[in-house]
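In this section we walk through a basic example: taking a raw amino acid sequence and producing a predicted 3D structure, encoded as discrete structure tokens. The instruction is simple. Fold the sequence below.
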Amino acid sequence: MKRKIIYLVCLMLAGSTSCNNLELFPPDQLGAGTFWYSERDIQMGIAGVYARLYNNPIDWNRYLLDHITHCAWGNTSVTNALKSIQSGNLEPTTGGIISETYTSGYKGVASCNIFLKNLPQAVANAKISEAKANEYEAEVRFLRALFYFEIVQRYGDIPLHKKTLNTVNEYMVKQSPASEVYEFIHEDLDFAIRYLPDVAYSTGHAVKGSAQALKARVALFQSDWNTVETVSRELINSGKYSLAKTYWSIFIKREGQKNNPEILFSVTYANPDIRHDAERVLYAYQGLAPMDQFIQCYSTDDLRFKEWYVKMEMNASSFINCFGEVANITNPSLTGWSLLKHTDKYNPETYKTSDFNFRTDNDIIVLRYADVYLMYIEAMVEKGSGNTTDVLALKCMNEIRQRAEISDVSSVSREELRLERQRELAFEGLAYFDLVRWKTAKTVMNALVTPSGQCKFEDHYYTWPFPQSEMDVNPNLDQKSGYL
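The resulting token sequence is shown next.
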């Protein structure tokens, strides 16, 4: 058992894209004779792949991407790299989340490829049924699609590794066109949709609905409206998901994340061993302070406005919480607003915890049903040349608005759809990619004045540069235009 655990750790850690980091080419004999012999080994291998979701820019750090939109101002060292996009200083040498997303994503891909390479051996040794083997493969192919999508939507054309790398030469390849990467992502997701369990999401393991929602999101980024419509409609008609009754049950474990009908996929945590810093950074440190001009997109009677944000004095370090008490924060708000969306605001202990010990195990939501509704609506708006009265689209929109306690609509325009996405999905790491795919990031960002001054978003920032560390070890890569 000890050797199996060691192998699992190796599986979790192997597979960096950079020869400067962890071992890229794990020896074939690793775990020989002691691993890939039982179904338990397969399950441990899958756990190792899921572990790639932790401690990288695609876990709770995804929320920080709202710093490079009009939504918020970042006030921590974690967002320093993102400030380079706001200030016109993005370079291949920019580190932090800009480069870590690339390396972390490829580590995830490599872990998936290692698992998929060894799965047939384990299936044969453990005499697992074909149906169960397909389910295990589908789960990991869903994760590989997720990792690749996180990379390609930021960097565009990227190296495409479809299997485990065994030599340095296999690693040193030119980037593939983004279209080929998307095709590969869709192949993985189609397999996942076919073979994953057709049940509601509940255990932290991907299900059919998870793969359908991700496929719709990928197609949305590609402006493939027919696929968005078809897949999201199928998911809606499945009847397995619905909007949660309260917003807090979606984002706060204590309030009801377990078996929540709105969650389709999340990065799951468990106290005391697996925790994260989201509440500490976003709340105590004011890591994402909402911008006043963004807050104006809400009406004052919108429940989301009332629940997710609190007005403060500029540079204030305290506010009146929901219990009528003075709540202190470590860093002052530089925008006059504080974000409470991901904070357990109805737990009195939240306001008493030292920021040094303020770590929580709320699951981080990657895919949720409200987004599926909004993706379907957008597909119908775009297919309707900027407006829709489609019955299902109106039902979806009005369910979202009714939960927010605002009035129904009888049609949806492109402008209203985009505003509703901003209101509903704010601070979930999606706003930046909306601005990118709508090609409005430059206009929106360059009209923004932050606490550090006027923003300067350049045309080539729509695609991030390859990290210089990758350029140094792979001479076949061509740096992105504008970063030479």
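Looking at the output, two observations stand out. Residues 97-126 form the longest helix (30 residues). Residues 278-360 form one domain. In the next section we compare this with other chains.
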